[in-house]
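User: Here's a chain of 346 residues. Predict its fold as tokens.
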Amino acid sequence: MEKRHPENVAPIGLVVNPRSGTDVRRAIAAAGSVTVADKANIVRRVVLGAVETGAHRFVVHGDPHGIVRRATETIKGLDLDWVGTELTFTERDTYHAVQWMRDAGCAVVLVLGGDGTNRVAAQAWPDIPVIPVSTGTNNAFPVFVEATVAGAAAGHVATGRVAIDEVAGPAKVVRLDVWDDQGNLEESDLALIDAVSVDDRYVGSLELFDPETLGVAVLTRADPASVGFAGVGGLVEEVTAEEDAGLLIRFESPAASDQVLRGPTAPGHYDDLGLQEVRRLKFGERVAVEGPILLAFDGERKRRLDQGARAELWVERNGPWVVDVASAMRQAAAQGSYLSKKTPGQ
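Assistant: Prediction complete.
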């Protein structure tokens, strides 16, 4: 196919979490590693796949390892718009980068990371059109797709050959309202896959979840082919990403429970989990939790509820617009996007 730059090609956002796939679960569980070199190779394939469709504009952000720069330095004809916010070396870098990409008019954003990275992206741009490429530890939300094809699908959206509303739709999310111990409503929050209450003192604990500390889990999906709480729930009651429902799990001490599940709470790591209740949730059905507890979102401890504080969690479908890569590629193929015809005499 002849490389070309069609008119009015929208930019593609590239979010690369340099820390995804590197946390402590490599040491205390058996999670696989994703190196800087791996990520640079993935980015390169994404960009090359997009370039083949005629897309050439990318909004990108820097990182301490120069992943995007290393990946693209030998690719000609690119228009890279670098996010102009100062790095903080925290998840706020992803948040600010995604806001920049939204304001720059990106047709779609490719996020290289896990559930946590995509959660931050959704906080910054609630209905972000996204292709989440798996490079994290918890990977229930991202898709396992060859990066070249992911880039090509993004390119077809950016060039306008494929309409976003024909190949994407809103994902389910867990919404969260919190009231402090004075009854004041605080800033709302969200999770893409699971929100879990934990009786733990430390927000930044590096340990795996202790089954004795688990309280309530609200899930947007439960898949027996996943790990983490989505996998745990799926071993009892499957709830697909397409169903208009969520799942509630109430845990109790496995030593005192009549129903104990042996489940994969992290890659390569199984625990005995006591189950008090497992049932489906209707959209909008609220689940209340009270402090003092910690709340973990998509596998990461994030928020403390003090004594007297409370929260309500529920599932609804108004999250990121996740691109179906296969559907986008089928549409592009049906249009003959990769075919060319010779005229007589050529």
